[in-house]
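Severity: low
Component: inverse-folding endpoint
Summary: output formatting inconsistent between runs
Steps to reproduce: submit the following structure tokens with default settings.
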């Protein structure tokens, strides 16, 4: 097929095809092809986002090797600014964020601003939206931040996310604070880097052995524990065993403790930055009032325990009970947990007791998919202009995870046009759950009618389908992928490709 004359969606024109290798697809097609990251359309969408008099926030970041204390466990890893999680970035809705990243890692890197509807050329996907940020070089990201909420950032380069390279990005709303007194950001993670093997070694092993070949060291887990399974997740709960799970960079043995007084309403901003682990989160003896998922407001709903897949965020207000209580994060399908202690200043900090962990395991779990979007952010229920199926499958005997039978190809895509109402249908044929994430947009999960939550990452359980709708209002080339970093790297990524 002659690409030069092809207008068929998902194809790219010859000119950008020829230049792709050199410029990572940053050039514009003459016509009838992809809308590339460097195009006028992307610039125009950004101009619309730039508010008159917008505040600008500048941050410098260094990605480098670091020695980090996880709470009694010293590890050599890769981190932002030598700390874990990296220092939070906090801006206000409508601000322009400027981040100068210096790469002192031994490898190329990138930063993806997970969940933000930003300009496509700042989305941080090497080979699709920008070139690699080479070792020893600097790159400046600059973009308007249109929506308030709880976000985070991480590299989109190989399996670097499973090192210490992640940090919260909090976007405040001028209306924040009306229904809570204080807030607490908790970033969850599964950890192995610098303990027994690197994430790159894990991916190599998975590819070599297929599934089930991971020895692991099982620190802090039951002896003889096999691959994690979960009834709640409908099958396999993970592909990798981890010696530790962390909350705000600490193991359960030596947790972070924050002061909180009885009766205080604390807005928890929960972020799952893990590579392969979902978490159940709850506070023994208190209920959660869930208010947001993936940054966007949902109709408030009470819950005992909430589940967060990888890449998901959830905000919930908890009224601090008497004494000192832990916010517990139980690694789903694994006998491991992490915690942050809410410490009453009048009593000594008290880490979780076994009984509290057990109590939490027995409580009903709220899945974010059963939330409903708050009216002010709900998308109108419209017939889609275009529907794309994404059939999820894997891992076969070579550890390949596929979408529509194919592994990731940045030159292939699911075509959409600016202005369309788009529906994606995720259909999971595998035995493991997949947190499916779309870059640059916040879709609406379709649950009876169109009334599910606004999200950018949605759990698709084995044997199940999930439909999501979004307004194609942010031109460019956007990944849609599994946020299990090993699945993504083993192929489970595709491109939602704006064409003209
Ligand atoms: Cu946080 Cu492409 O992902
Ligand atoms: Cu997956």
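Observed output (run 2 of 3):
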């Amino acid at each position: 097929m002659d690409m030069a004359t092809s207008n068929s969606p998902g194809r790219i024109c010859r000119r950008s095809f020829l230049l792709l290798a050199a410029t990572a697809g940053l050039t514009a097609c003459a016509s009838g092809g992809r809308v590339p990251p460097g195009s006028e359309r992307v610039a125009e969408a950004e101009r619309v986002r730039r508010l008159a008099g917008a505040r600008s926030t500048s941050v410098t970041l260094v990605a480098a090797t670091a020695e980090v204390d996880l709470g009694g466990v010293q590890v050599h890893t890769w981190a932002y600014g030598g700390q874990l999680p990296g220092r939070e970035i906090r801006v206000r809705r409508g601000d322009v964020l400027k981040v100068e990243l210096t790469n002192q890692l031994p490898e190329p890197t990138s930063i993806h601003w997970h969940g933000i509807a930003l300009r496509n050329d700042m989305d941080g996907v090497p080979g699709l939206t920008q070139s690699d940020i080479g070792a020893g070089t600097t790159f400046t990201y600059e973009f308007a931040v249109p929506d308030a909420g709880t976000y985070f950032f991480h590299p989109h380069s190989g399996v670097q996310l499973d090192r210490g390279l992640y940090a919260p990005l909090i976007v405040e709303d001028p209306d924040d604070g009306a229904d809570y007194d204080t807030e607490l950001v908790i970033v969850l993670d599964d950890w192995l880097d610098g303990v027994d093997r690197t994430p790159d070694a894990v991916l190599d092993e998975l590819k070599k052995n297929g599934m089930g070949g991971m020895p692991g060291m099982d620190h802090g887990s039951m002896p003889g524990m096999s691959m994690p399974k979960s009834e709640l997740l409908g099958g396999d709960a993970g592909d990798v065993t981890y010696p530790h799970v962390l909350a705000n960079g600490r193991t359960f043995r030596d947790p972070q403790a924050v002061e909180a007084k009885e009766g205080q309403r604390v807005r928890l901003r929960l972020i799952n930055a893990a590579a392969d682990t979902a978490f159940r989160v709850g506070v023994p003896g208190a209920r959660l009032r869930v208010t947001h998922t993936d940054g966007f407001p949902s109709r408030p709903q009470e819950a005992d325990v909430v589940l967060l897949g990888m890449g998901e965020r959830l905000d919930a207000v908890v009224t601090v009970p008497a004494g000192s209580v832990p916010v517990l994060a139980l690694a789903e399908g694994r006998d491991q947990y992490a915690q942050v202690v809410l410490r009453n200043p009048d009593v000594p900090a008290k880490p979780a007791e076994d009984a509290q962990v057990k109590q939490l395991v027995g409580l009903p779990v709220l899945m974010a998919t059963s939330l409903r979007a708050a009216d002010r952010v709900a998308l109108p229920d419209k017939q889609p202009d275009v529907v794309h199926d994404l059939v999820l499958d894997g891992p076969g005997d070579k550890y390949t995870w596929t979408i529509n039978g194919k592994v990731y190809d940045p030159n292939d895509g699911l075509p959409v046009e600016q202005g369309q109402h788009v529906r994606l249908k995720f259909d999971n044929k595998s035995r493991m759950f997949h947190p499916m994430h779309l870059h640059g947009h916040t879709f609406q999960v379709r649950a009876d009618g169109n009334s599910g939550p606004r999200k950018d990452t949605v759990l698709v359980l084995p044997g199940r389908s999930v439909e999501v709708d979004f307004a194609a209002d942010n031109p460019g080339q956007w990944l849609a992928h599994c946020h299990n970093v090993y699945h993504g790297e083993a192929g489970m990524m595709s491109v939602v490709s704006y064409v003209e």
